[in-house]
Amino acid sequence: MTRLRERGLSIIELMVSIAISVSVLSALTYVYVGSRGAYRTNEALARVQENGRFALEWIARDLRGAGYMGCLSRATTLEVYTRSGPGAMPFGAGIWGYEEGAGFVRTGSSPTNPTTIDHVRGDVVVISKLVESDPPVYIIEQDATNANVKVTIGGSQFQDGEDLLVTDCQRAALFRATNVSGGNCNAGAGNFGCITIVHSATGNDPHRIPSFGREGRAFVARYARIGYFIGNNRAGRPSLYRFQTSPSRPAEEVAENIEDIDFLFGLDTNGDNAVDIYRRADQLNASDWDRVLSVRVSLSAVSSETGAVPARQEIYLRDTNNDTVVDPDAARGGGDRRLRQTFSTTVALRNRLP
Length: 354
Description:
Strand content: 25-35%
């Protein structure tokens, strides 16, 4: 029987097989790393777009209703009696802005920021509007001498210290409720339950609002102020916050990882009910705010994950010339390589347009 000769792999064959294996593993690794990077970028992009669009939608919804006063929305005058208010924002202005948050603080006896969250960067916008009740709260009786109005039982929702607006679709008065209590009324149909709202001199100047009669047309509703600004959440990340007064609510986080925000205000300079120029908040006088017809909003959203892009990005926001400039506060973070994207929209103030 012939004995077979035993043979193994030569050095050359072994080196060739190793080279082929390394090439295959390198190709697989390259594909995996590339796929993983693409997945991280796409995931970050989806989250950034979701946050950015959600934030814009919330802001736009409130901006459209700025200055809403029910059936009196197109009125040019508003009688103001209340003493309360957020700092420099005039009553009845409907909208007010703070460029880079200048003047928007939460310290002192009359803070312009009525929340417990500090403003950290970007512009701030505050709007005011009537918040209608369901069902409407109508005036039943009014005692101008004793500075109170009696309204339907739905008025039990109102609280002491709230700013309320009364209107009969011909005029409007803004006053502060110093005391809200239950009781009975007698308007020719026997005793029935009603709510008495007192507007004394401790919260109003003057404290006697004009008589609105008892024709069943005059109603009372809250007059709320709603604001948007950038603050840090509990995780230390920048977020878009929304606050509301009357009724007073804690500031709520609308969207996380909103890094910067910019507002430009469309001004009607010649009274033709059309926007002639866009200005920053610090370029407007107190009398200009009544002539603002639209708001241009730009915000920068950022991914929560670091390393989502291969290099640091440059972020652009609108400026007053309607071109793009690098925003100095948006490209923060150094080499964090977070994905950033700018979102912009222009919102018309519906209650001021013809």
